[in-house]
Design brief:
By secondary structure, the protein is mostly beta strands. The chain is built from four helices and 30 strands. The strands form eight sheets. A six-stranded antiparallel β-sheet has the order 5-10-6-7-8-9. A hairpin with a 5-residue loop joins β12 and β13. The chain is elongated and about 85 Å long.
Amino acid sequence: MPIVAIPLLVSIGVPTAVAITSATPAMANTLNYPWPTDTQAPCKFGSAGGSSCTNPSNPSDKYDWGIYDTNHVFHPYRSGYEYRNCTDYVQWKESTIGVTVPSNWGNGGQWYDNAPASERSTTPKAWDAAVVPGNPGHVAFVESVNSDGTITVSEYNHNQDGTGDTRIGTSALMGFTEFIDFGVHPAGNEGGSSPVAGSSSSNSSVTLNPNNGEVYGFAIGSNGHLYNRSHLSGWSSWQDLGSPGVSLAGSPSATLNPNNGEVYAFAIGTNGHLYDISHLSGWSSWQDLGNGGSSFGGNPGVTLYPNNGEVYAFAIGTNGHLYDISHLSGWSSWQDLGSPGVSLAGSPGVTLDPSSGEVYGFATGSTGVLYSISHLSGWSSWQSLGNDGTSFIGSPGVAINPSDGEVYASTIGSNGHLYDISHLSGWSSWQDLSNGGVSLTG
């Protein structure tokens, strides 16, 4: 329950960040909140301050734990809030999930009144700030909203001793009657309940608007729905985009038209069809793009030609063939691009040269060899890129340098190494990039 003393920050003229003479801040038994040990961050009043670090000459002056800078000058404050207090802890905790709490909201009990009206709530959600009204009052971090109606909070200085704890109970019994909803919650957990078995798949897809830097992230939940969140000045809440009437599986792929900002997301359903949803002024309905006559597996690959906004989507059928469909004024028919004499497996990798519009598709064969196919005025023949002596596993990752059109393809070998090959005027040799000391798997 902190007392904010920002004027002292001004009067002593110290910088916001001060050097700590100790090495690494202690983490054990601190809820991972990075404050140093008691020896490194003592009470300003020494042992006379007691457990609540109270000024013997002024009982209302409490909680002045601090740090010494390199000149051994004591600084009791950090980030506008008192060290090892509820406010400083929650400000730090929210920062770990991408939320910036202003440094001038005052004591914990004042946060609700100082927060924007749009962020005030009386219903707790996971990752909210929970407020006990008053001055100083108290503030805590909502770890979860539980199925039995209780909430779990983590907090600092609840017992006025500068330490952290975790409590579970009803909001009312713990005194939390006000909540600040920053709009950031666990994946698939907008309402606050714990995401059963996790709401996101192990893989996700991102795309970016180069005009304003907005990032869009997509993931498939264990309920078969597609979820999206975006970041411009801060992360949005997760948005459940639902499913097209069948559960989605695997991982999504996404791309964006830089001319108008339209976002396209693709995912394969459990029925082996490819589905698409897009966003311009709002999210469209799901569209069933079918398949090329063979049920699709793995994950789709997508790319877009910025000159005209044409979208290309690829998927591998259970017959081991690569299929392609494209959209300009409308969706084309599926085109069976065949296979290079062996069945293709996994998921395709695709990229496009923005200067020429040439499309490159890559896939790994059942023999562990990487294959390439490209389209400019028409589709080329399949080309074997070999495998550098080790069988490739998983699916390739590809990229292109828009300045000179050089194409890069990377994939993982059965020996756990990452391999890279590139093409400018011709294909390079494979390069073994090894690993980081641990076997790579996908």
